């Protein structure tokens, strides 16, 4: 791809992606605002893995900085952009909705404008499985309607898909949206279940198990996610000749636009996930069984048929193996 902008480069997925792009010889500009939504030292440690590469440069900036973003795009002239920067978290969106508007709506508009005005060849952006909201038809398919989000976070991600389509239609900007399904692995986010469970169990505290443990998630290992993102980045979308306005398919368009699910396609019961963690740690968890939290959904399951067909993506890391690798990283990083 040549020169790639990775936003959210100090984040969980962004740092893994930047590393893989650098290893294959791309030049990478990493952008992050290093906000304090969670431990900044973890973000800095992720960045430290990238700074040894000659092809890497880092820009500390907020997506909402309009003048800064305009100048960055003009100066760098990126070939590709992968937008992973966003205010994450379903539960946090109940407490601080404006941060989602600033990052996920205003910030994403600045990304779209930068790509439009500087001739970026392909924009790949992170959407989320949360857009499926109240849908109950499993597995979730990109061909389904997703008009019933259950959190502002989910609504902001659906908005990103609509905004991106508009730019693909009006300005022929090639864009691909990826709906991520519960990504986990080394260097993960401290606000996610695996990190929270591991910390609590090692400290001898009980873990909070929502919906009485009756959750199912399509847990997807980060290396598999990164492989899928790179394959998508390298495949610039074209208008779908079969697309019809009489029977509109949400996943494609008469514009250069595609949507894909990117998940493991093998949902796992939360209690099974916890059992795998207990095995990896050699500790039996004390479980604090709680009701479902507002904004959460009981199950996710990705239909990845389109992604497999178009880019040959097929996740291959079993949950037990992924958790074992996370625990090994956690023990080393935290010296436990």
Strand arrangement across the biggest beta sheet: 3-2-1-4-5-6-11
Largest sheet, if any?
7 strands, parallel
Helix content: 40-55%
Q: What overall form do the CA principal axes indicate?
A: globular
Order of helices and strands: EHEHEHEHHEHEEHEEEHEEHEHH
SSE-based structural type:
alpha/beta
Distance between the termini: 40 Å
Which percent band covers the strand fraction? 15-25%
Report on this structure.
The chain is an alpha/beta fold. The chain contains eleven helices and 13 strands. A seven-stranded parallel β-sheet has the order 3-2-1-4-5-6-11, with helices on both faces. The longest helix is centred in the first third of the chain and has 22 residues, at 97-118. The relative contact order is 0.14. The model has no long low-confidence stretch (mean pLDDT 94).
């Amino acid at each position: 791809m040549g020169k790639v902008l990775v936003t959210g480069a100090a984040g969980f997925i962004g740092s893994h992606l930047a590393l893989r792009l650098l290893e294959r010889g791309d030049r990478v500009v990493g952008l992050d605002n290093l906000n304090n939504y969670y431990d900044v030292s973890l973000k800095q440690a992720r960045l430290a893995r990238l700074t040894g590469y000659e092809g890497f440069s880092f820009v500390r900036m907020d997506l909402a900085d309009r003048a800064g973003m305009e100048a960055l795009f003009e100066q760098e002239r990126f070939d590709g952009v992968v937008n992973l920067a966003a205010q994450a978290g379903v539960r946090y969106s109940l407490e601080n909705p404006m941060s989602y508007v600033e990052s996920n709506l205003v910030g994403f508009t600045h990304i779209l404008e930068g790509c439009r005005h500087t001739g970026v060849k392909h924009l790949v952006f992170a959407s989320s499985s949360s857009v499926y909201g109240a849908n109950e038809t499993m597995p979730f398919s990109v061909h389904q309607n997703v008009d019933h989000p259950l959190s502002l976070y989910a609504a902001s991600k659906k908005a990103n898909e609509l905004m991106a389509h508009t730019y693909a239609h009006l300005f022929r900007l090639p864009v691909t949206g990826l709906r991520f399904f519960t990504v986990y692995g080394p260097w993960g986010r401290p606000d996610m279940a695996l990190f929270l469970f591991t910390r609590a169990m090692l400290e001898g505290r009980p873990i909070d198990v929502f919906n009485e443990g009756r959750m199912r998630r399509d847990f997807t290992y980060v290396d598999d996610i990164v492989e899928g993102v790179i394959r998508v980045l390298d495949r610039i979308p074209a208008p779908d000749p079969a697309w019809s306005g009489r029977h509109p398919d949400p996943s494609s368009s008469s514009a250069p636009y595609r949507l894909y699910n990117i998940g493991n396609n093998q949902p796992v019961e939360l209690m099974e996930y916890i059992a795998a963690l207990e095995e990896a740690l050699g500790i039996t968890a004390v479980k604090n069984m709680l009701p479902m939290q507002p904004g959460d959904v009981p199950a996710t399951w990705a239909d990845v048929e389109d992604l497999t067909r178009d880019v040959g993506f097929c996740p291959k890391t079993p949950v037990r193996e992924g958790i074992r690798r996370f625990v090994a990283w956690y023990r080393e990083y935290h010296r436990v």
